[in-house]
Inverse folding.
């Protein structure tokens, strides 16, 4: 009789093992660097044995009854623990046996959970004289007899040629307890001899088990043909008597770590992909991670790279970020591949695909990498995926000191321990930050665009204006009446809303963009901008926004009016003007006076130094922003760390460095470290009162994603402020409904009673009119 592995659908143990071994063959091909890191054991053979042994405990007669839906006395035991006795009979070294024992024991539950919930409270002490001297506890040895060991030994010999020397039915208590003691006493750390053997072995087993269970038949990789679109681009340029820029050609011939400095719009994405192609050719397979700071830029990069005509192709590219569900909710409306699949199922399918090894390139936020260093569940799989990987960091200047510190720890980790290669690209970055990166990645190639190219990218003329932007609305009105495409950037949501209300009547089409919109409306506004860029006859004439505009939205305006900000933020804002360099030199107008609340957003000294260097540019260069001098300007404003930022950087760096070196232990997960990771995300989602009916309609139709998109995310301190001001601003609500299976579900949420407008966003100064609900 076949040993069952799963019941719905019915899958035998042999089928499941074969599915897992198929995944193993892909891992061996796509992670060749592992055997350069692990040299003391035959790593892939050890993975193979772990795969074959990991579910043998499912032969337990009572577990088989569970799978068949029969009455049973399984008592919620763990099948993986009954696999362990067979490992003792393998013809391998004691060290290899221990590694296999550990990864098999922990492949479903971390060791603290196993010890607490499934060993200490289930089985009698194996050292006791009487198996039943501890009242109510089972005997592991008696339970193991129900596995029918002789049948399992025959199964291994017949199908896999493994001849066991026997088995040992001792309780797993000692194995689990000893590992816990060793780990909790900090005797098992990154410096331990077998640390990475266990970490990567466990990650490999988990990948095999998860993807094998999903019946995945193919894992994609990047091949030579994947990059043919780059060759087509170059062929077209050569036909026009042009070529790739010199820095792009340098990237295509660079092996190992590199830092590229080149102006915005000079083909840095192509440079990164040319670098990746060369790494794959010279160093072999590895997964690729394209890291960006903002969801808008990630979405745009995903669409660009996943193009079947002008990119790597949809099968090769995935993405991960915190708002992925929101994106997919809209994306699926235009994706014909999923036209006959319910949206909820399609979103889940795509998310699961992107989370796994299915796609060889992922476009992600740095947090999708950093979370593994905090030891969140599944970190071992994530770290295996980094092995021999290629990591592209774009817009790396955009992070806070705390996030930058975590990125530095990550870079040190992958370069030092996992033979990762790093490609960092920037248009502008303070030299002291660049030095931190150089120290993190070790030897690297420095690639810089030619001065002649920088000169071709001069496209902006600085204009400094006295006073507040809000006191000079007439200037913007004048340009709108002249049919100019005008971009206005404010430092706060409130200010952007006020300016938009003043200006929208003067524009043919206008959009407001900031952080105080629902997910649904934010996506609609970004889509309107994208569509407006394609509509040359009737474009979005006016765009007003906040820092949200600084991210990689592919928009192109004739001029910008902006409130004062540090130079790096302003340069990003300027990048949305004359983006394609088809308009000669365009004005970028900066107002010198800040609003009183701006001091809570930006360091006033940075703004003062920015204005100072801009005045010098106007005096010496007639306001023309020379692209090749941007580094000089940046270093003037940011000569070194300021004391507060350096303290934040050092504290975060030292904490995460300690966690990775002393507390990141395979098979163990820490709630405290998980809390440390999530604590840095400053946001609470609230539902505007006027959307309550729509929200509950979505819930009643089990459309949880649609419901979640109606919420607005606000900062924790703003949330606390609203609560403190009045108990009428926010109140707790909950929606109750019954599933098709009769289960009662309660969804709690916060309702915000401030007014909300889909064009303007959340209006903190206006109260929604309450509607009395009959009880």
């Amino acid at each position: 009789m076949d040993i069952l592995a799963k019941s719905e659908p019915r899958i035998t143990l042999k089928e499941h093992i074969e599915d897992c071994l198929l995944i193993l063959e892909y891992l061996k091909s796509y992670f060749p660097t592992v055997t350069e890191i692990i040299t003391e054991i035959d790593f892939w053979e050890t993975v193979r044995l772990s795969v074959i042994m990991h579910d043998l405990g499912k032969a337990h007669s009572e577990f088989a009854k569970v799978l068949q839906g029969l009455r049973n006395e399984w008592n919620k035991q763990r099948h993986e623990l009954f696999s362990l006795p067979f490992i003792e009979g393998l013809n391998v070294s004691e060290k290899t046996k221990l590694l296999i024992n550990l990864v098999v024991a922990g492949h479903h539950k971390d060791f603290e959970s196993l010890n607490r919930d499934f060993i200490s409270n289930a089985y009698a002490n194996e050292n006791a004289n009487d198996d039943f001297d501890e009242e109510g506890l089972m005997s592991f040895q008696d339970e193991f007899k129900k596995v029918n060991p002789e049948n399992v030994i025959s199964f291994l010999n017949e199908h896999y040629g493994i001849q066991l020397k026997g088995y040992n039915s001792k309780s797993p208590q000692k194995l689990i307890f000893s590992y816990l003691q060793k780990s909790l006493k900090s005797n098992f750390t990154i410096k331990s001899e077998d640390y990475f053997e266990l970490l990567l072995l466990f990650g490999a087993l988990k990948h095999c088990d998860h993807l094998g269970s999903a019946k995945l038949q193919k894992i994609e990789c990047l091949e030579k043909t994947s990059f043919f679109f780059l060759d087509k681009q170059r062929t077209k340029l050569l036909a026009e008597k042009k070529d790739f820029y010199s820095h792009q050609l340098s990237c295509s011939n660079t092996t190992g770590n590199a830092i590229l400095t080149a102006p915005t719009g000079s083909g840095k994405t192509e440079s990164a992909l040319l670098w990746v192609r060369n790494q794959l050719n010279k160093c072999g397979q590895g997964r690729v991670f394209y890291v960006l700071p903002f969801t808008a830029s990630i979405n745009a990069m995903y669409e660009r790279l996943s193009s079947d005509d002008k990119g790597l192709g949809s099968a090769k590219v995935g993405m991960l970020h915190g708002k992925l569900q929101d994106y997919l909710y809209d994306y699926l409306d235009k994706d014909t591949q999923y036209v006959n699949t319910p949206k909820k199922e399609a979103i889940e399918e795509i998310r699961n695909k992107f989370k796994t090894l299915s796609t060889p390139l992922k476009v992600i936020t740095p947090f999708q990498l950093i979370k593994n260093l905090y030891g969140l569940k599944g970190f071992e799989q994530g770290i295996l995926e980094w092995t021999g990987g290629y990591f592209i960091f774009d817009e790396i200047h955009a992070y806070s000191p705390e996030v930058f510190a975590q990125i530095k720890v990550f870079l040190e980790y992958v370069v030092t321990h996992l033979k990762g290669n790093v490609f960092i690209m920037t248009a502008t970055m303070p030299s002291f930050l660049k030095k931190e990166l150089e120290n993190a990645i070790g030897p690297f190639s420095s690639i810089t665009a030619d001065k002649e190219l920088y000169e071709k990218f001069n496209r902006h003329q600085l204009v400094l204006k006295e006073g507040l932007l809000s006191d000079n609305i007439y200037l913007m009105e004048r340009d709108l009446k002249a049919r100019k495409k005008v971009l206005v950037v404010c430092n706060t949501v409130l200010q952007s809303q006020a300016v938009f209300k003043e200006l929208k009547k003067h524009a043919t089409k206008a959009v407001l963009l900031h952080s105080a919109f629902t997910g649904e409306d934010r996506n609609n506004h970004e889509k309107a901008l994208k569509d407006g860029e394609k509509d040359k006859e009737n474009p979005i004439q006016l765009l007003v926004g906040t820092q949200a505009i600084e991210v990689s939205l592919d928009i192109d305006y004739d001029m910008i009016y902006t409130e004062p900000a540090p130079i790096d933020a302003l340069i990003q804002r300027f990048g949305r003007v004359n983006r394609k360099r088809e308009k000669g030199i365009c004005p970028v107008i900066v107002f010198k006076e800040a609003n009183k609340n701006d001091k809570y957003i930006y360091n006033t000294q940075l703004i003062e130094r920015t204005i100072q260097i801009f005045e010098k540019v106007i005096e010496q260069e007639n306001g023309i922003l020379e692209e090749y001098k941007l580094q000089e300007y940046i270093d003037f404003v940011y000569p070194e760390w300021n004391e507060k930022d350096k303290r934040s950087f050092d504290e975060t760096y030292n904490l995460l460095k300690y966690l990775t070196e002393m507390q990141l232990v395979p098979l163990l997960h820490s709630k405290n470290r998980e809390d440390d990771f999530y604590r840095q995300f400053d946001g609470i989602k609230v539902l505007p009162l006027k959307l309550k009916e729509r929200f509950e309609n979505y819930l009643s139709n089990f459309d949880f994603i649609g419901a979640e998109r109606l919420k607005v995310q606000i900062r924790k301190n703003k949330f606390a402020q609203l609560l403190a001001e009045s108990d009428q601003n926010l109140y707790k609500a909950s929606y109750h409904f019954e599933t098709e299976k009769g289960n009662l579900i309660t969804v709690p949420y916060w309702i915000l009673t401030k007014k909300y407008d889909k064009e303007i966003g959340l209006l903190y100064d206006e109260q929604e009119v309450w509607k009395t609900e009959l009880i």
In short: The first strand starts at residue 4 and ends at 6. Residues 128-133, 771-775 have pLDDT under 50 and may be disordered. The chain has 33 helices and 21 strands.
